Amino acid sequence: MNLTDRVAVITGGAGGIGAALARRFAAEGAAALVLADLDGAAVEAVADAVGPLARGVAVDVTDEEQVRALVADTERRYGRIDVFCANAGVSTGGGVEVDDAGWERSWRVNVLAHVYAARAALPAMLARGSGYLLHTCSAAGVLTAVGDAAYTTTKHAAVGFAEWLSVTYRDQGIRVSALCPQGVDTAMLADGLAAGHLGARVIAASGAVLSPDDVAAAAVAGMAEERFLILPHPDVADYARRRAEDPDGWQSGLRKLVRRLGAADQGAPPPPKPAASP
């Protein structure tokens, strides 16, 4: 897809990847951008910085009625939605001990928000015979987010839903991409590091943290080629192949990585880094 003269909606638009997508879409010549976020003041500030083609609105993506209203208002103002970027996401930094509220929030933001977006945006796209759904799913959706059970589970579900959409609607003119970055310099990563979350520490230790603008550039390149799986970190494709070919060996490498970080915390010499570790 060429983004020139396109109308796009971007959720999670108050910062990080969402704000970077807005900047890049504007640079690509988008006609209009609607940025949505739970933090209305922050997303309005991002829209103001992007320019007059952008507007920011406060939306809770876990509320289907609000998502429907966002889509209806955008279609009323601009006549159509060419691209819907379901980008909002949350992490927990914990395992099975995370309470039901944490799991429920992860499920609603990381999965159901994508479902709500598709339900709302698809009818008009299908009627026109064209449209693009870009879902930010994370490399955790094709690999594993060490230390975060809910994030891993829901991001796998998000990739699965995006794949289902692509299989079901591509022949009707709908393009779907799952954007799956690994480490990105966002507030989510910074907050995770500040809290000592294992997953955030693994990402930081990998030395492969991209800027949100890098991820947005990869997203635009992937959309231009209409690729389903967009991997801003090229190594993720190799990791996914290793994981598929040797699941036991892959898990062994991850366990060694966790042990190495634990040994470093205790001041002991770490074991050699396994070749199969991300």
From TrEMBL:
SMART domains: PKS_KR. Residues 6-182 form the Ketoreductase domain. Keywords: Oxidoreductase. Pfam families: adh_short. PROSITE patterns: ADH_SHORT. It comes from the Bacteria. Belongs to the short-chain dehydrogenases/reductases (SDR) family. This is Dehydrogenase.
